[in-house]
Fold:
Amino acid sequence: MKQKSNLKTKQETGAVGAVDEILLEKKDIFFCSGVFFITLVVYILTLAPSVYFGHSAELTAAAYNLGIAHPPGYPLYLLLGKLFTLLIPFGEVAMRMNLLSAVFAALTAVMIYLIGRALNHSRLTATLTALIAAFSFTFWSQALVAEVYTLAALFFCAMIFFTLLWLKDKQERWLLLLALTAGLSLTHHVIIAAFFPVFLLFILLNKPGIFKEWKLIVRVILLFLLPLLLYLYLPIRSAANPLNDWGNPETFSRIIDHVTAKQFSGLFLKQGSAGFMFQWNVFIAALLKQFPSFLLILVVIGVIAELKRQKKILFFFLALLAVGVCYPLAYFVPNIEPQFIYIFLCLTLFMGLGLNGLYQWMQKGKKARISWVSAVILVIIALLPLAVNWTKCDQSGNYLARNYGRNIINTLEQNSSLIIDTENELFITAYFKIVEGLRPDVNVYDAMQNIFFIPAMKTQDKDKKPVTIADLYQFVNRMLTEKKAVYFTNPIFQNFRFADYGVLYKAVLSSENLENFKIDDPWDKYDRGGLDRPYPGPNEKETIGKYYFSRGKYLDKTNKKELAGDFLEKALSAAGDQHSVLKNLAIFYMQTSKFDEAKSILEKAIKVYPFDSDDYNTLGMIYHYREDYQTALEKYTKALEVKGNNGSALMNRSMLYEQMGDKETNQVIKKGYYQNALNDLEQAQSLEPSNQTIAQLRRRISSKMMPQG
Structure:
């Protein structure tokens, strides 16, 4: 053990702390244990007690069933999840998977403490840095539900820790541990690979001749590649045909596609610079709710302090931060906030540098007389995120997702089918069908063809082409013709009628009278626990909005207009910034001829998310109805600029062109409008070949182009 005088000298010079002190000193073991148990206890007290929304439900089902999760597959996480759920003998499966996230998060907090000690921070400031990270909003929220981000954070921090230990004594064991950790991280969250060049460059700059040590390089490569064998899980389990066999990764090409997340590759820079700026605004909003904003001053203090101590450490952290910022901003997906977790961890490390700098300054000269006061001040500062975020993060008693899933399942009549085209409902339903085995009489089909496959069109069938909208239409039409009940989570086909049934829609053949389908009100049968949550997350807002929206529509159709208005207002209030609810509300108001309300909500929806083609299409319909043809044409055209294969916008614009042609007296211009209409209809029919309305429109407009007389 190092002598105290020697340790003091190291603190003053800013050298990285002694490895033996960090790993073997009894006080550090005590502090590590304290950080782990404090954070884990807080996480358990605020843990989600049941299934949660989004990928949490899907991952839980995949771990339970040893199925195939969404790309890149997360084989390590699923295997650890299965083992953990078997070892924990109490609680439902979803709760056990949630608890696993909490354990990973607590271990990450320990790793942040060790990073602080590797930087030769005091035990106090290392502990406080760990607590700031542990109780920052996004990290805490991910620690309470079954998600991949806390294990990814653990790998990320472990890689930083081993790199800092290697920097201290250049011993090979730290590089070998770094290589093994990097390989394991790739079997979990491939995004971490974006940080690999930073680690590699840092090592090369600090030991330029390392590539000459070929024996070491060979061992590093082998230890990095060895964990990748875990990806054999994908073809092995896929061959067993589990219910959740996402992507069917049995062939080499499909394994590569799954591991590299080819399915989502089109999301990078999907909306160009506009999308990048949109995600930047999302990031700033997320950053400001992580912890009290004034704590960001510690980042500045940390940068200044480290410039005077160790520039190489500062630039290492800055490089990690830069990669952490650029990657998620270019990745255009909804609910991107958890992807920022690496950024927030890096910022927390900078805060640790700032805390340590402040603490050392407080210990100098006369200030040392009030060292206990400075320690108390720093403790209060570090615990502010715990106090501020507790209520916002708390998931204890949150059964909203469980109730919603059960309500969906129980809404369905005996031996019916459910077509799902929304991920939130798909994943929750997958949990109840796969894990809890509810409603074996009900057939569930995934319109996106990721989990519940359509018979005779399965992606497992090697020679089958991907399922198209036309295929799905034919499949549903056949079931309805055979008098089988079919429900949808969204009315996705124009050439079916849809009867509202609680949060679902029952499909009816277009030839049948919708009035003949009398549907009981399921509202009082629903378990509505959780609708009054004080700080709902994005998926919770969407779900609460859907409940109130479905209720409002039902009351409106039963002529209880005043009460219906109250529920629709609740839906608007509950939805907040959730685009899907705003979109559905606007469509409903337009269909009920409340055009001003529809227009107002659509404008709000476009501000929330300016990349939805249907919003511009619906706005076009409002202007079209009001005979403002030029503005309507602009909106329809904008809808098709955002999404060229929007069949509804193509049909609407074609009918607008037809009406503009009808009003035109110049024969050349008139025929030009009609030709534009036919062009749009031709494209629309290629999307929906069986849509008879399109065929009728084409015949009608073609007849108008024929010479008269």
In short: The chain has four domains: 18-393, 400-519, 543-611, 627-709. The first strand starts at residue 417 and ends at 420. Residues 400-519 form one domain.
